[in-house]
Specification:
This protein has 493 residues and is of the alpha/beta class. The chain has a single domain, classed as TIM Barrel (Alpha-Beta Barrel). The protein has 19 helices and 12 strands. The strands form 2 sheets. It has an 8-stranded parallel β-sheet with strand order 9-6-3-2-1-12-11-10. The chain has a 4-stranded antiparallel β-sheet with strand order 5-4-7-8, with no helix packed on it. Helix 1 links the parallel strand 1 (3-7) and strand 2. Helix 6 crosses helix 9. The chain is globular, with a radius of gyration of 23 Å. The N and C termini lie close together (9 Å). The model has no long low-confidence stretch (mean pLDDT 96).
């Protein structure tokens, strides 16, 4: 069935307190999706972020990001005072997240709420802790230790803690009991608000698309707890790390720094670690986009001591054996495969075996004009998901302004772009009019924003993941334009 969706991370919602949350602005955006006939809302990973603020470098694949806890709900419950929250200058700009300020003050505010909440903990909280015990106990200890070590990564902790000696862990759980309880309460609030958020979306018949990164951050609770599953030596230092090979755009390639999986070890127990992770992710989302899908076919492995990716090599991944196991253990999972980048025959073969729809990014379509580019709409198949761009791309307006002249000319001729309709809306029309069963458009394109609203520049630190929508941008004119697109191209939910 043809449908449409909007890519808009929770952090990009308007908010009085510096970053988008699971509160009233999320409901307002869902109302916008509902009245414009939009069936899907796609977001980025929702885990707690680490250095660089990237949702793809999270401390945990199970925990929710405390930044997304709605402070206004805590105010309504009497756990915070409005003056406590508004006294902080969360950001100089309505359209930007100031992560430094968030890091400095958000947990202080949340800790005030926790102190008031902890005076009389409800039975519901203890039930939550018991239900989520398998991951929550280690996560809360991990975060408490990070606070105690002033943010230092776990692999720099003292050996007895780094190596998780049983007596040391027991001692630390007792010593840091209050801080551990704080992080448990944060997850209780997040999960409670998330359930309300999902319930609201279901009432409006809006399906949520989530994103699961293929790799874990080295500084994550999962790597700390189960180092034997990752490419680490006896001292738990990294041996091989993930990245991408050099190409025409980057002579040094990309050095991501995430630890490589020991797929041979994972295979022995039927990829149990991954099955647990996927089963948990399915609780949160209706459809899951698997980031860097090609890494399951073959992955680029780089010696950890290297300064760039030039010394890396391709290594065979688990292939279809992994997905066959997943289907047996979890049943049919609604998957979008992120199949972008350098693709080889084994990737195409794996895509065919799995039967998952791949991604078509319109901005990639116009580098040549021989008609053969797979990202040109006339080469699409219905079983695909088309995007004008992703979180890693420029906005459509930004791309059009900065691309090579021949790309601009080709796009203009192919899509009949003109200023009257708007360049961004012409790109949207090209995606919406394609045969792809699902068309996803970043909210920045719908708002006709330029490079200033770009979400991420891969392989760069600083200034990423910051864009926020202003409350006045999502108006009736925007809603009418988007509604018209959904009606015109039979994508109304």
């Amino acid at each position: 069935m043809r449908n449409s969706g909007i890519l808009m991370h929770l952090s990009s919602l308007p908010s009085r307190y510096g970053i988008g949350t699971l509160g009233k602005e999320a409901e307002k955006f869902a109302d916008f999706l509902d009245r414009t006939g939009t069936g899907y809302w796609q977001i980025l990973p929702i885990g707690p972020t680490s250095y660089g603020d990237s949702p793809y470098q999270s401390f945990s694949s199970y925990a929710g990001n405390p930044y997304f806890i709605d402070l206004e709900e805590l105010i309504e419950e009497g756990l915070l005072r409005e003056t406590e929250c508004s006294a902080i200058a969360w950001s100089d700009r309505e359209d930007q997240v100031d992560y430094e300020t968030l890091y400095q003050y958000r947990f202080q505010i949340l800790y005030r709420a926790y102190r008031r909440f902890s005076d009389d903990l409800p039975e519901e909280f203890f039930s939550f802790c018991e239900k989520e015990k398998s991951w929550l106990e280690d996560y809360a200890l991990f975060m408490a230790e990070k606070d105690d070590h002033e943010g230092e990564p776990w692999y720099q902790w003292e050996d007895e803690l780094k190596l998780r000696e049983k007596e040391t862990l027991a001692r630390e759980r007792n010593r840091l009991a209050d801080r551990i309880r704080f992080y448990e309460v944060l997850q209780y609030w997040f999960y409670r608000q998330w359930e309300a958020f999902r319930g609201m979306l279901k009432q409006k018949h809006i399906r949520l698309i989530g994103d699961i990164p293929i790799y874990m951050a080295y500084d994550s609770v999962e790597v700390w707890c189960e180092p034997e599953l990752f490419s680490l030596d006896e001292n738990l230092d990294q041996v091989q790390v993930a990245g991408c090979p050099p190409d025409a755009f980057d002579a040094g390639g990309q050095l991501w720094g995430n630890p490589i999986y020991r797929w041979d070890v994972m295979k022995k127990d039927g990829y149990a670690w991954w099955m647990r992770r996927l089963r948990h992710t399915m609780r949160f989302f209706d459809k899951i986009r698997i980031d860097h899908f090609r890494g399951f076919a073959s992955y680029f492995s780089i010696p950890a001591e290297d300064e760039d990716a030039t010394g890396g090599k391709w290594v065979k991944g688990p292939g279809y054996d992994f997905f066959r196991t997943m289907k047996r253990e979890l049943g049919e999972v609604d998957i979008i495969a992120e199949d972008l980048g350098f693709l080889t025959e084994d990737v195409y073969e794996l895509m065919d075996q799995c039967g998952y729809p791949g991604m078509k990014v319109l901005q990639f379509a116009f580098g040549c004009d021989d008609g053969q580019n797979l990202y040109l709409p006339h080469n699409f198949t219905p079983h695909s998901v088309v995007y004008t761009g992703t979180h890693d791309n420029n906005t459509s307006l930004g791309w059009y302004a900065e691309c090579e002249p021949w790309e601009r000319d080709h796009a203009t001729a192919y899509l009949h772009l003109d200023e009257e309709e708007g360049i961004g809306w012409g790109m949207i029309r090209g995606a919406m009019g394609s045969v792809s069963e699902l068309a996803i458009v970043p909210m920045q394109d719908i708002l006709e924003l330029g490079t200033e609203a770009r979400m991420n520049r891969p392989s760069t630190l600083g200034g990423n993941w910051c864009w926020r929508m202003r409350p006045d941008q999502n108006d009736a004119v925007v809603a009418e334009k988007w509604s018209t697109m959904n009606r015109r191209f039979a994508r109304w939910k």
